[in-house]
Amino acid sequence: MAEEKPIVGILMGSQSDWPIMQHTHDTLNKLGIANEAKIISAHRTPDRLSEYVGAAKKNGLKVLICGAGMSAALPGAVAALTPLPVLGVPMDGKVLGGLDAILSMVQMPAGIPVGTLAVGRSGAINAAILAASILGLGDDTISDALDRFRAEQTAAVTEIPED
Fold it and tell me: Which of 61, 68, 126, 146 has the fewest beta carbons under 10 Å from its own?
């Protein structure tokens, strides 16, 4: 997959977001979806943000997944710069446990959509699965991979508790 051109961009505001956003990367890899991860801060690297997002569609990206905490500006700034689907993953926060980030993401103004997922690891995994669902609408290989993933997930649930 390393030679495939990425179709999903995973963005995060700082290195400290990687332990959570790595779950997005790993899940996309399990689904066979080429992706790339970048550290791009809406506040600290605005030129990098504008350059990356401005070229994203031309570079073949189809979905952007943004992890952000605190003010959670990254997904909103990304959504303002691209017509691509933008999925937001609120990071766990030290002050409000991620509530600040989720509230920022769900209060986007009309016309600048951010699909907001759960806080933390669950949101990071679900962002990858939602990206696969979106991409699978036009790609039978991705759709089949998602069907297999979901079937394996279902099969892993035991019916009877074990001691």
Answer: 126
Q: Are 93 and 99 in contact (CB under 8 A)?
A: yes
Amino acid identity at 129: I
Cα distances from 126 to residues 59, 65, 145, in angstroms, run 24, 11, 15
Q: pTM to 2 decimals? A: 0.94
88 within 8 A of 66, measured Cβ to Cβ: yes
Residues 64-120: pLDDT tens digits?
999 998 888 999 999 999 999 999 999 998 778 888 898 889 999 999 999 999 999
CA distance 118 to 69: 12
